[in-house]
Amino acid sequence: MAEETAAAATSMATNYEVDLGNLMACDPSHHIAAAQSSREELRNECLQKATELAQAVADALFALPATVGRDGPSVRLPPPVHRLPREKHLPRPKPPTKWEQFAKSKGIVKHKKNKREWDEQTASWKRTYGYDRVNDDRDVPIIEAKMTDEPGVDPFAKRRDEKKQRVEKQEKNRLGNLKNAAKVGALPSHIQLAATAVPITGTKADLPKKAKKEDLENVAGMASSATASGGKFDKKLPGEKAPKKAGKNRKFLPVVEGKGMGNLEKQQNDKILNSLLAKNFEEPLDVSKAITMYKVKKDNKRRKEKQSSSGSNKKLKPQKKLQKKSSKKTAA
Amino acid sequence: MVAIRVPRSMRAKREVLKHAPKLVENGKKMLILHGTKTSAVLNSVLADIFHLKRDHAVKYTKKNDNIRPFESGGETSLEFFSLKSDCSLLVYGSHSKKKPNNLVFGRTYDHHIYDLIEVGVENYKSIESYAYDKKLAPKLGTKPFFAFIGEHFESVEKLKHLKEMLLDHFKGEVVENLNLAGVGRIFVCTAISPTTVCMMHCALRLKRSGTSIPRMELVEVGPSMDLVVKRNQSPAESLRKEAMNTPGHAKKVKNVTKDVLDGKTGRIYIPDQEVAKLALTNDIKGLKRERRDAKKNKEHSKKQKVNPE
User: Fold this and answer.
1) Does A68 contact chain B (CB < 8 Å)?
2) Mean pLDDT, to the nearest integer, of B74-97?
3) Is B2's Cβ below 8 Å from some Cβ in A?
4) Is the pLDDT confidence value at B306 over 90?
5) Neighbours of A56 (CB within 10 A)
6) Number of domains in chain A
7) Which domain covers residue A31, as residue numbers?
8) A153 belongs to a structural domain
9) Does the interface predicted TM-score (ipTM) exceed 0.90?
10) Where are the transmembrane segments (chain B) (predicted)?
11) Does A28 sit within 8 Å of B154, measured CB to CB?
12) Chain B partners of A192 at a C-beta cutoff of 8 Å?
């Protein structure tokens, strides 16, 4: 029985083209007899033929060695015979960078470096790169001066500057390499090169903006008012309007004295007066400051007097306290 | 001046890399859209196609008045949509007096039109119009079978093209391993005449046959329609050659090896646990035993006291 079906399958397989990779079967030799007849007949013939074809695919499919997984048996499909086009181009190989080219021409081979090395300065194991690395400039608190040093140059600042320049140079090189890669379409997929700042000559962004009507009106207004009379006696052109922004915006403080805004003018004048006085005298008289100074002086004087009086008879301390209390009471 | 722009977050980077060209590609996505006018039939056709491809399709619902796929300059917005939605299969529907119920199947390569074929839809029957046992309903994302019947698929150039187009549009994801439990549907395409193809979608019923190979039975589940081929546009030979390029081998994944006995094995880095430096808390269960014991003793003594009474 099994042999018979297997034989049938092979005979069918010879008749039909079976592409197992796409789970597809074709019957290129079949002629549809019912094409001209009714829809129902056509449908039946199609289904009958399709059943045969589906059986042909299933025969080939279920004959494959299956592995039983958690979700049921699964088979490994052969690669499709009927090939279909790709969606996107193959990823292109990255061209070598300038350094890689140079290293190749000189025969420089890349060596693997240790991640951590012994740092003599701090006597500890440190990474060979990044923050807190071996031979970190930050670990050197003193740079000894040499005879050749120029006076007035900060060696720390100089070192920082040099580092900055090296980083900038590297960034420039990186950009150059990326541009080269972009030329052959091998830019890494997550990187974009975008034009910034100065627009490319001849492009739309480079063209000057068309002047707006408002701008023109403003300019016309300014020109017409550029006479001694501010354009008051000039003849107006037909359709010309008065300038929209005439003169400056000025704000005057209230003349009458009062609270809030009214007080501002006084303050302003005081300020001016004080600054003038400060130029003439060494220190302008500050009444509140003078009063506090006077008070402090007075307090100090009283304290001194008390100390001198209590220092003469040390044995009478409690009495002193009594005195103090009494004095306070009297004060209150 | 040129600035280097990179995604700011890892998530954004992953998303950008999803759209990047790959050595081994993931399944193609389908973009479904329509022109200024569509008929009720065409609306239903597009909806059904979207339903069949739901997991790998994007459907646009707005009118598009500047898409003319076959005319030069009319494909620009189509290409832009393809780039935007990262779809390389296009289905464009339009309806006019001259070309009623018009459907354009298209493919893109590198987000540029690769090839196009224009068909008219006739004798359409929607999914809803079919009544069948719902147990048989094909599951989403299963890989379909294909059956192409008729001598015209070999002899007529346009039908040959249509065959390839239909296969690419509906074949689903390219897989190496197929779960046999997922076998359940078939597209039947029959060339009735040199210009007409009858397309049907059927569910497969696997019946016992006494052997390991099940007997197939077909149940029509819809949609079904006749496609009348009108115009087509084949790819240029050089473009076809480039698009058919196959990678030599997939890129090797780092630190992952395959073994006959162990299967897939990987090497991962686990930092030192530093058990000696672990902070101890007072909440360790082992230390609570004393208290538990004390409690037990207390109860024990109580019982002893009770017993003599």
Assistant:
1) no
2) 94
3) yes
4) no
5) 24
6) 1
7) 17-65
8) no
9) no
10) none
11) yes
12) 4-6
pLDDT for the residue A197 = 58
What residues form DSSP beta bridges with B125? B224
Collect all residues of chain A within an 8 Å Cβ-Cβ radius of residue B211.
1-2, 5
Which residue out of A29, A62, A86, A170 would a mutagenesis test of the B interface target, given it has the greatest number of B Cβ atoms within 10 Å? A86
Residue B21 with chain A: CB contacts under 8 Å: 88-91, 189
A274 at B interface, C-beta within 8 A: no
- Give me the residue from B109, B144, B200 closest to A46, CB to CB: B200
Q: Closest chain A residue to B9 measured between Cα atoms?
A: A190
Quick check: is A24 in a domain?
yes
A35 falls within a domain: yes
Say whether A86 and B243 touch across the interface (CB within 8 A). yes
Residue A165 lies in a domain: no
* pTM for the whole structure: 0.65
Convert chain A into a string of H (helix), E (strand) and C (coil): CHHHHHHHHHHHHHHCEEECCCCEEEECCCCCHHHCCCHHHHHHHHHHHHHHHHHHHHHHHHCCCEEEECCEEEEECCCCCCCCCCCCCCCCCCCCCHHHHHHHHHCCCCCCCCCEEEECCCCEEEECCCCCECCCHHHCCCCCCCCCCCCCCCHHHHHHHHHHHHHHHHHHHHHHHHHHHHHCCCCCCCCEEEECCCCCCCCHHHCCCCCCHHHHHHHHHHHHCCCCCCCCCCCCCCCCCCCCCCCCCCCCCCCCCCCCHHHHHHHHHHHHHHHHHHHHCCCCCCHHHHHHHHHHHHHHHHHHHHHHHHHHCCCCHHHHHHHHHHHHHHHC
Q: How far is A106 from chain B (nearest CA, A)?
A: 30
Query: Could you tell me which residue, B176 or B30, shows the higher pLDDT?
Result: B30
Q: How many CB pairs under 8 A join A and B?
A: 216
pLDDT in tens, chain A (332 residues): 444 444 444 444 457 889 999 999 998 888 877 667 788 888 998 999 999 999 999 999 999 998 888 888 889 998 888 889 999 999 899 999 999 999 999 999 999 999 999 988 888 999 999 888 898 888 888 888 888 888 888 889 999 999 999 999 999 999 999 999 999 888 888 888 887 656 566 666 666 677 777 777 777 777 777 788 877 787 777 767 666 655 666 667 766 666 666 677 778 888 888 888 776 666 667 788 889 999 999 999 999 998 887 655 555 555 544 454 444 444 44
CB contact under 8 A, B4 and A178: yes
Domains along the sequence of chain B with CATH: 17-243 (3.40.50.10480), 256-306 (no CATH)
